[in-house]
Each structure stands twice: as C-alpha cells, then as structure tokens.
Design goal:
heterodimer, A: two-stranded antiparallel sheet, 2 strands, 2% strand, B: mainly alpha, two-stranded antiparallel sheet, Energy-coupling factor transporter transmembrane protein EcfT (chain A), membrane (chain A), transmembrane helix (chain A), ABC/ECF_trnsptr_transmembrane (chain A), transmembrane (chain A)
C-alpha cells in the first residue's frame, strides 16, 4: 500500500513566497490557455516557460518522480489507444495526408497523425508542471484562504480545507481497518478471485464509511458550538497579503493568456496547420 | 436548507470528499480489462448524495474528483470531473423522495434508487463524458465513447450492488419514526 499522494514541500524560493491566491490565478489562467489551444507554437513556448518556472521553484525532480512515471505511462497508453481507435484523426483535422509507412487498411502512419498526437502529448506536458507546482508550493491551509480571496464563498473554501485536513486521518483509519481485517484472514490482494475481492473490499469500506459519518457528526457539532457561519466574512490565519511581486505575476500571466488566445484563434481555428 | 449551506452540509462535503479520494485511490479493484477498475468511490458518492442532498453530492463529486486527479496524477481531467459533479448532484435531487432518514429503505426504495442511479450515470458516462472529451480535448470520437460506455457500465453495476448495500446499512442506523411503542 505504498501509494503516495502529492503534498506540500517546504523550500525557500520565489515561487513559494508568492501568495496562494496569485498561484491559483496563474494556475487557472495557465490551464485554460493549455486547454483551449491546440497551437503547437503556443504549446512549445508554454512548455519552455513552465520548465523555467520549475527550475526557479527549487523543487527537485525526485520529489515528484513517482507521479511523473505514472503520467508517462498514462500518456503512452492514451497515445496507443488514440492510434488504435482513430489512426486517421490527424488527416481529418489537418485536411491533408502524407503517408510515411503503409500498414494494413487505414492503419498507415501519416505525418498528420504523428503531429496531432505530438500536440496531445505536448498539451499534457504543459498542464502538468503547473498543477504539480501549484500543489507542492502552496500550503493546504493557505489554499483555502486563497480560494476565498478569488471569490469562492468561505463556506465552500472551508469545506475544501477540511478535505485536505482529513485526507491523512482517513488514510490512517483506512490502513488500520485494512490491517485488522487482514489479521482476520481477509485477503485484499490479487490472489483472490474478482468477486471474492469485491466482497472483501466491502468489509473495509463499510466500517470506514460509517465511522466517517460519525466523524461528520462530531466535527459539525464542534463547529456549531464555535459559531461557524454566523458572520458574512471570515479571516484566515494563514492568508498572505499581496505584495508587489504578486501583482506583477498576475498581470503578466493574464497578458500571456490573452496573447496565447489571440495567436491560437488568429486563423479562426484552434489547430496550427503547418501542412497548408 | 433555507437557502444557505448548513454546517452539517459543509462538513459532509469536506469529509465526504476526503473519503471519496481515499476510496478512489486505495479501494479501486482492477477488473482485468485495461484502464477499467471497479470504483467503489461512486457507491459512496451515491450514498452521500442520498443522505445529504444535491449540493453535498455535487460538491463531493467535484472536489473529490478534482483533488484526487491533482494529488495523484498532477493534472485534472476536467470532462470527467464534471461528470462526477453531475452524478452527485442529480442523484442528490431525489433525496427527499428516497427519504433515508426515516429509517425505511425497503424494496420500493431500492428499486427507485437503482433506476435513478442507472439513468443518471448512463447520461453522465455514455453522453456527457465523451462529448466533453471531444469538446475540450479533441480526442477521437469512437475512443471516448468506448471508454465512457465501459466506465459507465462498471460504475452502474458497482453503485447498484455496493451502493444499495451501503444505503441499507445506513438506514438501519436511523431510528424509524414509529419505533416508540406505548407500554
């Protein structure tokens, strides 16, 4: 059960010292740009930028390597699946066909298809570092404060901070229950048959869920006693005030978003077509 | 609800999303078909939607799925996140009708719960997920429809079995309104 989750990594760097709200705005602008564009030039520039920011943040590759392996494996599978299901997708999008190698039927390899799949892969490489950086450089309790600052109601922000706060607790509880069930001889590993495994999993799920429902009761009573939700506003212990650097970063990132959209949609299409 | 989020709903969203993440991460059983797992987290989502209502259901799906994607893969697959929100929200819309707090969850409720969850999930996985995949990610249509259908079928079956059992177990912990008897 050595599956890890990403979490905050304490370092001293310019990226860490930005306010959480700034990083959230940049992250949102960044992902919307990456999601909307299919323009190879924009994607390449964004990739270079994100690698540069990654270097500034002083986060080491080995800190997050377990996620990287997973992403690479996922990308490979996804690319193979796209090719198997639709080997002519690129030809359809770019409207021309340059065959490199002929294989049976429609499964020939065209430059257009390779280019289309390169773009899909690039898109992934552009979004991922931004999300990774946001997660490992923003403290969970500051995250809630920054959500509140960009306009999410503080009750919802508080719910999200509760989630982040209780993930480790519930994970611990899950382990305890799983181990005590294993001590009673219940096998969760792949040695069991599928149906037996589903049944065995439910011997863990039921106590976990019912005890979580109790937990909801206890926590909401405690919050009620302290008068949570009485006022329209709430202050956050870990909120960071905006500094000059924050304003500069926000303005630059929004300008970049607009620029990327202008370049992408300049020719009336979200794909960049080098074959015309 | 009187138009505002009650404290209990907020806590249910927070802790519910945490449980959703743990279940999605640790209690997903591979079926043998590549990339397809039996997701016990959706059974839990259905339970929370029925117990705490549409707002809690939708937000548990949304927050849970977003954070799980972000924390374990480093990027969020928005089209499917939206499907989780949709499923939690629309199963939750029927919470008053199923009225699990009354402690009664018999044959009639089991049948209507399963019809609701099957219809909602069918719309979500067979229709919404593939269409959003095409709109946002421009992926090939036949690939995303096959993915959606496989995921949808496995989730409908999982929620049908584990979700129903969870709801029965939960309803037994509620005291029925006519459980007091005059001596």
């Amino acid at each position: 059960m050595a599956v890890e989750l990403l979490s905050y990594i304490e370092r001293k760097s310019p990226v860490h010292s930005l306010s959480g709200a700034t990083k959230l705005i940049v992250f949102l602008a960044w992902s919307s740009a990456a999601m909307l564009t299919y323009d190879t030039r924009v994607l390449l520039v964004m990739l270079l930028l994100s690698l540069a920011i990654f270097a500034i943040s002083k986060v080491q590759i080995r800190d997050i390597s377990f996620v990287l392996y997973f992403i690479l494996a996922f990308l490979l599978l996804n690319n193979i699946a796209i090719y198997i299901f639709s080997p002519q997708e690129g030809v359809k999008i770019y409207g021309s066909s340059h065959v490199i190698i002929d294989i049976i039927g429609r499964y020939n390899i065209t430059i257009e298809q390779l280019f289309y799949q390169l773009n899909i892969t690039l898109k992934y490489f552009v979004v991922t570092p931004a999300a990774l950086l946001f997660i490992v450089t923003t403290h969970p309790s500051e995250f809630a404060a920054s959500l509140n600052r960009i306009g999410v109601s503080y009750k919802i922000s508080y719910a999200i901070s509760l989630t982040l706060r209780y993930i480790p607790d519930i994970q611990r509880e899950f382990r305890t229950i799983a181990q005590s069930q294993q001590a009673r001889g219940i096998d969760m590993s792949k040695n069991e048959k599928l149906w037996k495994r589903v049944g065995n999993a439910s011997t863990i799920i039921f106590p976990l869920i019912l005890s979580s429902l109790d937990r909801i009761e206890v926590v909401s009573n405690a919050m009620e006693l302290r008068g949570f939700g009485k006022n329209k506003k709430r202050s956050w212990y870990s909120a960071k005030p905006f500094k000059r650097g924050d304003y500069i970063v926000i303005i630059v990132s929004i300008l970049l978003l607009i620029l990327s959209l202008i370049i992408t949609f300049y020719d009336g299409n979200r794909f960049y077509n080098p074959f015309m | 609800m009187n138009n505002q989020l009650s404290i209990k709903t907020i806590v249910a969203i927070g802790i519910g999303a945490a449980v959703f993440i743990i279940l999605a991460r640790f209690v997903a059983i591979p079926t043998g078909i590549p990339n397809t797992t039996i997701q016990t987290s959706y059974a839990f989502l259905a339970l929370m939607a029925v117990v705490f209502g549409p707002i809690a259901g939708g937000l548990i799906g949304f927050i849970g799925h977003t954070l799980n994607d972000a924390l374990s893969y480093g990027s969020v697959w928005w089209s499917w996140v939206f499907v989780s929100l949709f499923i939690g929200l629309f199963i939750g819309l029927f919470w008053k009708k199923l009225d699990i707090e009354s402690g009664i969850f018999g044959k009639k409720q089991i049948i209507s719960f399963n019809i609701i969850q099957a219809v909602v999930q069918a719309i979500g996985w067979f229709l919404l997920a593939p269409v959003l995949d095409i709109l946002i990610y421009a992926e090939p249509a036949n690939k995303v429809f096959v993915q959606g259908i496989v995921a949808g079928l496995s989730n409908i079956i999982t929620v049908g079995i584990i979700g129903t059992l969870l709801l029965i177990a939960y309803s037994k912990t509620r005291s029925q309104s006519n459980s007091l008897r005059k001596q």
